[in-house]
Each structure stands twice: as structure tokens, then as C-alpha cells.
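Hi C.,

You asked whether I'd gotten around to modeling the 228-residue construct. I have! Everything is below, sequence then structure, no commentary in between.
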Amino acid sequence: MTLQEAIKARHSVRAYKDKTLAEDVVKVLEEQIAILNREGKLHMQLILNEPKAFQGTLAKYGKFRNANNYIVMAGKRAEDLDERIGYYGEHLVLLAQTLGLNTCWVGLSYSKVPGTYELAEGEKIACYITIGYGETQGTSHKIKTIEQVSEAFDITPSWFKKGVEAALLAPTAVNQQKFSFEYVGMNNNRHLVRAKKGFSMIGYTKIDLGIAKYHFEIGAGKINFDWV
């Protein structure tokens, strides 16, 4: 499965089979987490066979079942931490999909279980990502149109539109899709794209923006562009 295929196939899954992750799958995930932690200056941690984080009242409200494996999304407090959490976390979400796993971003419906994770001085947990073999592959939800989140005119490059299409398939908190993309033009033979988060009473828009930007990059393909 390619990343483009993973984007289309991935849906949030909250109920999992009571099944241990395969050793080769765990190895791939842990190796990638180590790489992304260095690249994104984060402290993401894969927690295996630990059921307590998703046994509380909020987890039951969120309809989680057998969510015994998850990724703790943490990093040092910074203005751009949440966006980096979303961007690099979605790397893992799509990787998991290519490995035959299912996932779900979780902002509130979890409990922090002491002793299951480590935090250095100045670090915080932004959210969790459940991961495992889903009972189903999840279901799709209604999404906005390209016109609602961008100014994609006839003269806008086709790769920009493909990027926006991929971004619209990105998971966001309660499917709010509070982001937008703008094709700015060119400078020194480089295309320029601006991505913005919108306002939301629910929050999580910075994480959502990071996720959407990674989707945009995949959809746009190997185009020389810079974020501005």
C-alpha cells in the first residue's frame, strides 16, 4: 500500500481485536518513531499491551474497546509543538495503515497511566494515538470541498489541488477541518504555499494543521515548494 492509498483507506477506528502486534510490525514502528523523534524534536513513545489508559469513563464514552496499544505524543513545550505533533504523528498513522493496522487520534478520552511513559523536564503530552488491528476498517465522513478550504482557481497548479484533496482526507478533531491552503506564487524558482489554521471552540487546530500539511505534501507529490 502506498501512502496515497493509505490516505484514502485510513479511517478512525476505536474498537480493536484482542491481538498482540506482530514483532516485525513493532520493530518497524519503533525504528520510525526513533527517526521521527530526532527529526521533529519530539518524544513519541509506543506503549504495548497496556489496557488501563482506555478503561476510564471518558474512554467508555469514546467507545474504545481493546485499545491496549497506543503512542504517547509528547515533546518539549513550544509554540509549534502541537503542529509538529500532528505532522510527525500522521507519519506514524499512515505508516501503520500500510502495515495493516488501524489507528485513532485521541485528544481527551484517555488516562495517563504512571510508569507507562517518560517525560523529560519541560515536556508535555499533547494527545495519544491508539493503534492495533481494528475490528473494522472504520467509516468515511462528510468532508468539505476544495473551494471551502482553498482558493483553487483555473490557473492554480494541478499539484496544489491534489494536495488540497489529500488534506481534506486528513483526520481532524470531530471532523472540524478548520484549515485552509493558499497558493502564493513563486520565488527563486520555488513554489510557495501558505497553510492556516482556523478558529475552533473545540481546539486541536494546530495538531489538525500539522496533520493536514503532511497529507498535502503527499498529495502534491515531488514538487519543489516551500511553506510560508
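If it helps when you're writing up: The CA atoms of residues 40 and 84 lie 6 Å apart.

Thanks,
B.
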